[in-house]
Design brief:
Blueprint lengths: L6 H5 L1 E2 L12 E2 L8 E7 L6 E9 L4 E4 L14 E5 L9 E10 L13 E5 L13 E3 L10 E6 L14 E8 L1 H8 L12 E5 L16 E4 L2 E8 L10 E5 L4 H10 L1
Parallel strand pairs: 1-9, 9-14
Antiparallel strand pairs: 2-11, 3-4, 3-6, 4-5, 5-8, 6-7, 7-8, 10-11, 10-13, 11-12, 12-15, 13-14, 14-15
Keywords: Disulfide bond, Hydrolase, Protease, Serine protease, Signal
InterPro entries: Peptidase_S1 (IPR050430), Peptidase_S1_PA (IPR009003), Peptidase_S1_PA_chymotrypsin (IPR043504), Peptidase_S1A (IPR001314), Trypsin_dom (IPR001254)
GO molecular function, one term: serine-type endopeptidase activity
Length: 262
């Protein structure tokens, strides 16, 4: 995050006191409602075509916040990644900026499914506008109480195995107790370790609302504050296994330090 106004990172770290007021039910929305969200696109080395891959949130004019999984493995190096800011429609419009380097959290890959968070440096600065704005991230150590509404937003698949949404969508779900969530994921044939560095959210025993494939890296909002980074789930919108996101409050100090010192 030099021309990125590093001091604004500190000004835009907030507490989780706002109440969410987003559209419920997975409806199309527009980037004016979420000006800090951006698309992450990748370049296929096989087809030389850019495609939508993940979401991210603007930290400063030079850094965005995403998931480490979006910048790990084959074809994930910086030359094959770019972001699109200020666009309501997937892979269309807005401002395209290329990635310089992704700084994944040191624990990612060494602690099961934990640490799925990345601070991504851009090659050139974003220009702020009504549709391109900084996110406010939660203060370090803050948590979202159980049974509170949070909002997912992104351009991912509209159902498991289905097509991507051509337009930005949002959906309201509810936070679920992490211990209960750990019990649910412990029932899988390959149990997953759910920790306090994660946010579990969905509509338990009902389903029908969720993030899905290629929403990873996108924001989880509590009011207007980014409290999570979408990480993974078992199936999409499955009432038995809610979605798991990285809890930003567990990483805020690292995010700010990484943005200022790199």
């Amino acid at each position: 995050m030099t021309s990125f106004w590093f001091f604004i990172v500190f000004l835009c770290v907030g507490s989780i006191t706002a109440s969410p007021d987003r559209i419920v039910g997975g409806q199309p929305t527009n980037v004016e409602m979420y000006p800090s969200i951006v698309q992450v696109e990748f370049l296929s080395q096989l087809t030389s075509i850019w495609s939508h891959n993940c979401g991210a949130s603007i930290l400063t004019s030079r850094f965005v916040l995403s998931a480490a999984q979006c910048f790990t493995g084959w074809n994930s190096d910086a030359p094959f990644r770019r972001i699109r800011a200020g666009a309501t429609y997937r892979h269309f419009g807005g401002l395209v900026v290329y990635v310089d380097e992704a700084l994944n959290h040191p624990s990612y890959g060494s602690s099961g499914i934990g640490g799925d968070i990345s601070v991504v440096r851009l090659k050139t600065a974003l220009f702020y506008s009504p549709t391109i704005q900084q996110a406010t991230i939660v203060t370090h150590g803050s948590t979202v109480p159980d049974n509170h509404a949070v909002v997912f937003a992104g351009w991912g698949r509209i159902f498991s195995g289905g097509p991507h949404s051509h337009v930005l969508r949002d959906v309201t779900v509810y936070t679920i107790n992490n211990d209960l969530c750990a019990q649910l994921y412990g029932q899988l044939s390959v149990p997953l370790n759910i920790t306090q560095d994660m946010i579990c959210a969905g509509v338990l025993n009902v389903g029908g609302r969720d993030a899905c494939h290629d929403d990873s890296g996108g924001p989880v909002y509590f009011g207007d504050i980014v409290v999570g980074v979408i990480s993974f789930g078992y199936d999409c919108a499955n009432g038995s296994w809610p979605s798991i996101s990285s809890a930003v409050g567990s990483y805020t100090d690292w995010i700010v330090e990484t943005a200022v010192l790199t």
